[in-house]
Write a structure and sequence with these properties.
Layout: E1 2-10, H1 14-25, E2 30-34, H2 41-45, H3 47-65, H4 79-90, H5 93-104, E3 107-110, E4 113-117, E5 120-123, E6 126-135, E7 139-141, H6 155-158, E8 167-171, H7 175-186, E9 190-194, H8 206-218, E10 221-224, E11 227-235, E12 238-245, E13 248-254, E14 256-259, E15 263-265, E16 279-280, E17 283-285, E18 298-300, E19 305-306, H9 313-329, E20 342-344, E21 349-354, H10 357-362, E22 367-373, H11 378-381, E23 389-395, E24 400-408, H12 411-423, H13 428-432, H14 445-448
Parallel strand pairs: 1-2, 1-6, 2-3, 6-18, 8-9, 8-14, 9-10, 17-19
Antiparallel strand pairs: 4-5, 5-6, 7-15, 11-12, 12-13, 16-17, 20-21, 21-24, 22-23, 23-24
């Protein structure tokens, strides 16, 4: 069948939905396409199900930290029950998503999408012609240059494991590996993380990462730095990872090997060249309005677009809003990447927003760096946290916060206060005048500045 639309959206996640709904509200005929269940990565196989598992791990961690201080340990994670609970969040998503889109009058198509020409998308036996096209296909795990990649378990598969393997090996030292490793370790598994370089979590402050690695190891997670995986072999029900560690042969056997070595835009099978859509390593090549540099009817948002934006759900949503505005009103809006708070949901959590110390110095700012070990502060001592640290980057000339970096049980909520501070360009003098509820983690902010 052949169809004509004002807007065709490839993808159904955060980068896709806002633009689709806003254009439909304006009276446009809109189509959405997905080859997977509708809803996108975050609610189905990313942020949301992961956070359910993290919540259980936090409860175990709290109990263990307070053992002998008024709490008796002995609680354990029942993995199969936890997965059943997780599915109460994920399973309703696809049907609910389709119903909401159809209720809005958006046409839905299921299948792999590919360009036939600059304005036509093929989906199974259907040909969709669009005045405008939005590519919002998200990301997929990067292909690793090792032998035996067919033996890897991927993040979406990990989130569907009915039973947790006794010994897990995570390849790559990114946030996926660390988050899943902390969950698995609190659930009783033996856990290893293999990092090719000397530093994992490269987008975060080194001092805080070092503390997180130390905490991870003390909680039973073995972190192998400077270790390169060469191959994965399967024998019966076990897997052997082979490679080199500091130039010496390295071998590790486990029950499951999980890919945690990063993700890339999922655009390879779109036949972009047929649509005259240029791309690069980080996604579809776009201008400052998120419009394709080679095909003006095409826009891209989220992980599929080559922008300065971090691969985060809020950034994808923001970019989708920008695309919607530019489609409806002409190219006027540009995405703002100044404030992008990011959290690694480990135990303790690691968070960051704004500039790192290194970036601030490279950009020529006259800075003051407040690096404080906060483990002895009441907020963390009362729950027996061993590791907690803040690192705040302040512009001495303007008295404004340029960056904030936190490691603690409260780091995920606290980072939002600093995101607000940077967004509205508040001065530290202003923040010190705020009266916060006490005792709360936010009441410590004045002492951090």
């Amino acid at each position: 069948m052949k169809y004509d639309f004002d807007l065709i959206v490839v993808g159904t996640g955060s980068a896709a939905t806002t633009a689709a709904m806003k254009c439909r509200d304006a009276g446009w005929e809109v189509a959405m396409i997905d080859s997977r269940p509708y809803g996108g990565t975050c609610p189905l196989r990313g942020c949301d199900p992961k956070k359910v598992l993290v919540g259980a791990a936090e409860m175990i961690d709290d109990t263990e930290r307070m053992n002998g201080k008024g709490i008796t340990s002995g609680t354990a994670i029942n993995w199969s029950e936890l997965m059943d609970f997780k599915r109460t969040f994920t399973e309703p998503v696809p049907e609910g998503k389709i119903e909401s889109l159809k209720k809005a009058g958006i046409h839905t198509f299921h299948g792999r999408a590919s360009f036939m020409d600059e304005e036509t998308i093929q989906v199974e036996d259907d040909q969709l012609k669009g005045k405008h096209i939005l590519i919002a296909t998200g990301a997929k795990p990067v292909e690793l240059p090792i032998e035996g990649t067919e033996h890897l378990t991927y993040s979406d598969e990990f989130l569907e494991l009915d039973e947790l393997p006794s010994k897990l090996i995570f390849v790559g030292g990114g946030y996926i590996s660390f988050e899943f490793a902390h969950i698995a370790a609190r659930a009783g598994a033996e856990v290893h993380i293999i990092q090719r370089g000397e530093r994992p979590l490269k987008n975060f402050e080194p001092e805080l990462v070092d503390l997180l690695v130390k905490s991870s190891e003390e909680n039973g997670i073995q972190v192998h730095l400077n270790t390169e995986v060469k191959s994965i072999r399967k024998a019966d029900d076990s897997f052997t990872v082979e490679g080199e560690k500091n130039g010496e042969p390295f071998e590790l056997e486990g029950d499951c090997v999980v890919h945690g070595a990063g993700r890339v835009p999922e655009i390879d099978d779109l036949d972009l060249e047929k649509g005259n859509v240029d791309s690069e390593k980080n996604g579809v090549s776009v201008n400052e309005y998120l419009q394709s540099v080679s095909n003006p009817r095409v826009y891209a948002a989220g992980d599929a677009a080559a922008t300065k934006g971090l691969p985060l759900t809020p950034i994808a949503s923001m970019e989708s809003q920008v695309v919607a505005a530019n489609l409806l009103d002409g190219n006027q809006q540009k995405p703002d990447y100044e404030v992008m708070p990011s959290v690694v949901f480990t135990l303790p959590k690691l968070s960051a927003v704004g500039l790192s110390e290194e970036a601030a110095r490279e950009q020529g700012y006259n800075i003051r760096v407040n690096k404080i070990d906060t483990a002895e502060w009441y907020t963390y001592k009362r729950t027996n946290e061993k590791y907690a640290m803040v690192k705040i980057i302040i512009d001495e000339d303007t008295d404004q916060v340029l960056g904030a970096h936190l490691l603690s049980r409260e780091a995920d909520e606290l980072i939002n206060h600093f995101a607000t501070t940077i967004h509205f360009k508040l001065k530290t003098a202003d923040l010190k005048q705020v009266t916060y509820a006490y005792p709360t983690a936010a009441s410590d902010i004045g002492s951090m500045l």
